[in-house]
Amino acid sequence: MAKPSFSSSQLEAFLEEALPIDEIALIEGALRQDPALLKQLTAIHSRRDAGVHTLGEIWRRHRASCPSREQLGSFLLGAIDPTAGEYVEFHLQTVGCRWCQANLADLNNQKSNVAQSAVRRRKYFQSSAGLLGRR
Question: How far apart are CA 59 and CA 28, in angstroms?
Answer without folding.
Answer: 24
